[in-house]
Fold these 4 entries.
Entry 1:
Amino acid sequence: MSALGDVCCTLPVACALKDEGIATEIVWIADKRFAALAKQCDAIDEVISLEKSQLKKRAWVKELGEFDVALDMQGLLKSGLLVGAARAKRRLGFHWQREGARLFSSPVMPDPSSLHVVDQYVDVARALGCQTHRARFGLAPAPEEQASVAAKLAERGVNGPGYALINAGAGWASKRWSPSKNAHLAAALMERGRPVVFLGAPGDRPIFEEVQSHCSTPPVDIVGHTSVAELTALIHGCAVHIGGDTGSTHIAAALGRPCVGIYKVNDPRRTCPYGQFIHTLEGDPDPNDVLRVAERALAG
């Protein structure tokens, strides 16, 4: 509910429950800023776009009907309050419960073999009887979103897939790779004939403008020009995605796109692009090292 990457990384819970017949109907509550991503998951039947005002008066949750189980996958007070208000026979939650969230649901401790946060989320589904061994995200952009993104890229001189996507932003400043190194990497990719597109939210524009200030040849700028639904389509068409521990990185991994993760703060064993630890660099790597990993990811 609080971040795009969190929504993405929890989608395999819905897929596991639906794929194995544990759940026949799944209702998902998500922050209205990120609800469009949940709507692109083929395992979710209904998505409720949550407004802040709905947290104060929660009678509407009971009106959703009775559920066999309510799951708190975020483990914060706001998610706990919603789970607590649900008419559910059971209430389970992700093991990392904060702000009193465990007052409303029982935490499911992860299996010792579940190192990645996605696998730890899926452990909640396993507690309900799922036997899945590999997370499935069920994400796919709609044709109209793909067409919209294709038109926006064409306006900027990019025709067709095969471009490299770079996200220079992140929710925390400490997670961001330096603008000058992003610019160096973009230049190296363009020198090799690869179109380079920078993406991001509207709030990332100052970061991108600083990247631009270091570029002799300007990369393609689509920062702040895509909706969340279009973001999935944009990532779906890329040849490789490069970024830190941020939402677009996790979406790229969910879509099976080659990802290069630059992890300055968080432990990549826990939050790397799912299934692509081999393409992850820690600390503050040199752009040439990132380029080598990107070329390896492109080669498959």
Note: The chain has a mean pLDDT of 93.
Entry 2:
Amino acid sequence: MGYEINRFQGEVDEELICPICSAVLEDPLQAPECEHVFCKACISQWVARQPTCPVDRQTLTSAQLTQVPRILRNLLARLMINCDNAQYGCTRVLNLDSLSIHLEECEHNPKRPVLCEQGCALVIPQDELKDHNCIKELRTLITKQQQKMNEYQLEFHELRYFILEQRREMQLLKDFMRALKTSNPSMRAIADAMDRDAQDREVVRWSGSLQRARVTRWGGMISTPDDALQRMIKRTLTEMGCPIHILDDLMENCHECRWPPGLCSLETRQNNRRQYENYVCKRVPGKQAVLVLHCDNQHMGEDMMIEPGLVMIFAHGVE
């Protein structure tokens, strides 16, 4: 619905009046063929009931409505209008295009949000402040929060039951596949491929949960870490949720004797130094070490990458 005409200062051109509500246009839209203009709310309700122009009855749908020309928007914007809160004491007269901004800040707006200074610190409409009861409002708030908590707990229990059912079905499927592998040799290869695929997906999911790392000093790489250092890194990987089927392989791949040809000696590492920056490295929290997983580095050549990946330990230089 449009703005009441008696709120405006001076005469309002009839071209700025909505034919439906007979008020000044609000959020105007235009019919494309006949170019008649209406309030957005008015014409939307009209065409929802009957898809015709209210003035000349030409066919009209909501999808055909267009924005009005800029000159019409400018004419509307220049109209001088009284504040919505004039009845509450506001005497401001301002351009129509400034009205919405003013209403948000108008001190006479009865619905302006204000902070309760009586102790509860709730934000409430200004016209409700005089009847506001802090204890009552806080009790209502606590009740609503308790209801939400109950809903969350119910949802949690439902999800937990669903997960348990999924785990049970997965275990049944694993048992079934195991039985097939034992009884039917032709199924063994299929089952093994499925197991490998599931393990690969698990590694990709785990890698996606890890933060990227940046190595600033590749020269600080420790190519022959001692047993104590390896045990410390392995314990950290376990705490990070490293898939159990790759944990031991990763730890074996932290020593240069297991590294690919491009890394297996000091000479080859120096020759391939420029390729280091192409590695996608993942952080090992709290340690000067990075994970270089095969699933993240398939762009690297076989001479620089092995499965399931590498653990690189440094004296310094990991960010």
Note: Helices lie at 40-49, 70-78, 99-105, 134-183, 185-208, 227-239, 244-252, 266-271.
Entry 3:
Amino acid sequence: MDLMNESILFWAILSMSILGGICTFLFVVRSLSNIFALYRENFISSVGQGIRGMFLFSEAGELFTLVIALAIGIGLLSYFFLGVLSTVFIMTIILVSPLVIFPALRKRRSEEFVHQMPDTLDSISSSLKSGLNIIRSFQQVVKNFPNPTAQEFAQVLGEYRLGRDLNESLDDMAARINRHDVVLFVSAVKISRSVGGNLANTLDTLASTLREKTQVEGKIRALTATGRAQSWMGIVLPVGLAYAFYFFEPEAMSKLFTTPLGLVVFGVVVTMMISSVVLIRRVSSINV
């Protein structure tokens, strides 16, 4: 009888263990699936906007597949030759880089467009004063200005020739650039086309205002350059030091990821790093 009870208890414990293992496995798989879906959604949204904003002939879905394949391939190689920590670090860089690079390139392109805007507005104003209409003025911009200004106005003119309303094309241009300066220009053109008015004088005033705004922004960037550099150092320096310590003392550094106290310390350090970077960026970010 005791032997039967022990056998029943053994099979009950074994069944509970198997059931718990299956539930844990399903929970992990579902969590990873949700994380993957969230990453894919953010990737398609962020990188897709960057690709469309820079007129690149590629699809965000294709780039996503390429990044995943690259992360898996390089991750496997680094696992066999460099170890677990290096693999996690390298794969994280590969997966995060597109989410940072493409928005940064799009922002840089928008800043170049806005930097060229005062001269662009002067050109349009001069064309209007000489008797040309708004379409011919845009053609002069495409002919005489470099990218991205020429590229954006060429896109507007191309859509206009295909029968699209000019206001809608200008709204799309403002959405691609995503800067308040462009919204002001688009609003001025739309108001002038709907109710009339001296658009040339309006553009002259706007060009003068943008030049003054650019000068003020340049002074602010110079004064806050130290703060921006500190925010980058707050990310690069701790990560670099941690990797160097792990390379020279892997046994001591492994306790940071394998013991409860080490995980707590690691969490506190990461939280403090992120908080310091956010605070520094907030303080050094001044809108004009």
Note: Residues 72 and 258 are 24 Å apart (CA to CA).
Entry 4:
Amino acid sequence: MNEALKSFLDTFHIEYEMDVALSQKTWIKTGGTCGCWITPHDVTQLTELCRWLYKEKLEFEVVGQTSNMFFHSTCSPTVVVCTTRVNDYSQEGDIVTCGCGTNVMRLSKDLMEQGYAGVCGLTSLPGTVASAVVGNAGCFKCSITALLQSLDCLLPDGTIKTYNCKDLLLSQRSSAFKRGELEGVILRVRLHLEKAADMEEEKCKAARSTQWRKLNQEGPAKNLGSTFAVLKMRKNLRNITAFCIAYMGNKLRIGSYRRLLKKGLLRLYGYHRIDAYVSDKNVNTFVWRDEQAERMFPIYKEMMNKIYNHATLEIEEKI
């Protein structure tokens, strides 16, 4: 471990661990060994830490809950900064200021209970507010970026810049941060809130969205949600055949439409060997079921690029 870094962390009382197996830290229990896993407890510690790392030109990764990140076993970063403890938030009028590591689910549930609109679809969305901004994540017509007023970002030169929503150049499941057009560490996120017209209806929407996710998506363990973004299926005979088989099988009560579609696609494209690693509920969800999953993931990506046009990864892959 870099002795200067150790001295800095000790001086500022910032929590850290050395030589950490990423499989003990990451969402899907994968990855190599991290030289130093650092956990600042507030925005001040995060700011001073990252400013020092930038100044010393030390490479580092910033992560939240890692619920959208796949670390390969070959990935052994020198320094990882985890923001999950930077999770305080405060409210002044209709503005909520959140630490970058604030949990989206917890925040959304709290705001909904207070009678605010625009969060009912986020009450079962994993991840932090910063990661939700970077990935422009959302579901059920709700998103953090739709509420975004501004954010504070620590730039590589050590200054702090405030961006508004327009600065992020948002696109479907993406932003200027995700595309690498903007650099830096998001420190705080400010959300502009409005009271819901019908609180009971908001609660009903939240309940329906949670139920839908249970029926149509895998649980949170061993997967990273949707693997690809902006999928458009190719118009070819194999895809049409798979759709017809799934439709007829569902009508005849042979099985669920989604499971039959998955089975048909895997057979028709010759990828039935990865059946156990593709969700029965959504072919766009890969399941890290066991130690063989890392070897199966490139095969899964190959298959998805044959089924879909320009399949673009939504998850972040660290090799």
Note: The chain has a mean pLDDT of 94.
